[in-house]
Design a protein that fits this description.
Layout (H helix, E strand, L loop, with lengths): L10 H24 L6 H24 L3 H31 L7 H29 L3 H18 L12 H9 L12 E4 L2 E4 L1 H24 L6 H13 L1 H8 L9 H24 L9 H34 L3
Antiparallel strand pairs: 1-2
Helix pairs in contact: 1-4, 1-8, 2-3, 2-9, 3-7, 3-8, 3-9, 3-10, 3-11, 4-7, 4-8, 4-9, 5-10, 6-7, 7-10, 10-11
Amino acid sequence: MHHESASGLSLTFEFIVLGALCALLLADLLIILKRPHRPSNREAGLWVGFYVVLALIFAGVLFLFGNKQASGEFLAGWLMEYSLSIDNVFVFIIVLSAFKVPPRYQQEVLMVGIIISLVFRGIFILAGVWIIEKFIWVFFIFGAFLLWTAWKQAMEKDGDGEGSGDNFLVRMVKKRFPFTDDYHDNKIFVKIDGKRFATPMLLVFLAIGTTDVMFALDSIPAIMAVTRSAFIIFTANLFALMGLRQLYFLLENLADKLQYLKYGIAVILGYIGFKLIYTATRETLAHQLPEIPLAVSLGVIVVSMTVAVIASLLKRKRDYRHFRSEHLGG
């Protein structure tokens, strides 16, 4: 007798997949702990490519298992989480820069940050799915929250927001603990003259961890507009987070070049907020409303990110031409 979950997949399959993905993430962490270094663009690009191909293979496996709906939901959810993760990466860039983390330890910091993020997302996924099963009207709240987040994202000026890493929790810890001025390898605490001191690495982990919570609050309601299967939500998040560490190093040099990326992310968040409110209205007040097809969600995500990237590159090209004509006489 095969037991099926809410996704229509067997529970055995889900446990095997989650076990394999968690093992892969752990192996990734152990490699970094053994050989902390700053990857080259080529190395980072190969890893990002590997995880993207792995996610597409997984979508294919879901499709071959005869569950086209689960495959489509995973693909839309993964693309959505990956898009939102790019915003997460830019905040990582600002935090690591603000705390002047030595380059050779940045991989380790990012990996710990990603694991913290995964834990929080896991908690929010399980809690969120349970809440929605009991109270569908909570979609109205989630939807309004995402619309507000989208507006904030679009209106935010460069350098604003939680980027500095000096948030409330970090400020509170600074007051409670004596800190060293310098890093001591990758240690969080050190003893100097018999007295225990915290290092700046503790503040880095706290800043990364607390910003992770904020991003989880955005992304979990967002993916619930696509699917309510805890398994698909968790695997989509897992695949999006897996390549995030390597994506950081690829995007670090592009942070100033992709100026319009935040607007693409804002459009995605706004659409998802609208879809959550629409779904809640359809299921509680107006059952005659048609369901929004999954293909529409996929289209909005892909088109928003593509247009934002192309517009950013065109603006950069135009600015460069303007600079040449003014300073170099064309």
